Amino acid sequence: MTSATDSPSPAAIRLIATDLDGTLLRDDKTVSDRTVAALAAAEEAGIEVFFVTGRPARWMDVVSDHVHGHGLAICANGAAVADLHDGGRLIEVRPLERPLALGIVHALRAAVPGTSFAVELSTGIHYEPAYPPFHLDPGATVAVAEKLLHEETPGTGAPVLKLLAHHTELAPDEFLAQARAAAGDRASFTRSSPTALLEISGPGVSKASTLELCCAERGISPAEVVAFGDMPNDVEMLSWAGTSYAMGNAHPAAIAAASGQTATNGEDGVAVVIERIIAERRAADAAH
What we know:
The protein has about 290 residues and is an alpha/beta fold. It has 9 helices and 14 strands.
């Protein structure tokens, strides 16, 4: 495991992909002045920055002022690409089909009693009575998941971005393991919360797979990407990128997947690495 403070950065970085909560954002959900400056310096140096998060597009206001150039963000663990220059408009959606989501609900109800569900649509979130309420979404519908996933005419409802599953008694990693055993062959299961809250996406949908698509459109290879993350939903992205850093506060799975480790989110660990990349680039330019 390398350190962000003493290991060399790759010479030809073209894109930085960073998670938000627990990674770029401090614990109070703000972006520090140091990190704002580092992001701006990266863009000025010709390095694209992609925010890659489990958050829905409507919760991206915390970083929308810091999107440069392309204005795009990968949201909902790869289920959507949003244009933050256009109010978070979704320009690409990789949905979890409703019949598949319904089957997963039935499988988890049987295998892990006590599970409650929420359905994250492209238009907002809705949840069951037993699910922890979303105070940021006061207009949510409260009903059983079977009703939330029902369509009078197939294909007419808003796309399902994620199915969320919550358990009040199980430990988070234990819940994830049981859910994957019950239905992991049907969809992508992960988590990013410190509580037993699972995030379920369509088959093959992850931060990494959508980031790979965005990079391919730009002719950018994994070797030209530096990624940052802290939780299990970052594992695939940290493994895919040519260079990756788990935060000092990261989950063990993220640490194992990354090629290096930086400081904590409270210590501006992302900025620490970006500053070194920029310094190396300037030194190389001066040498030539």
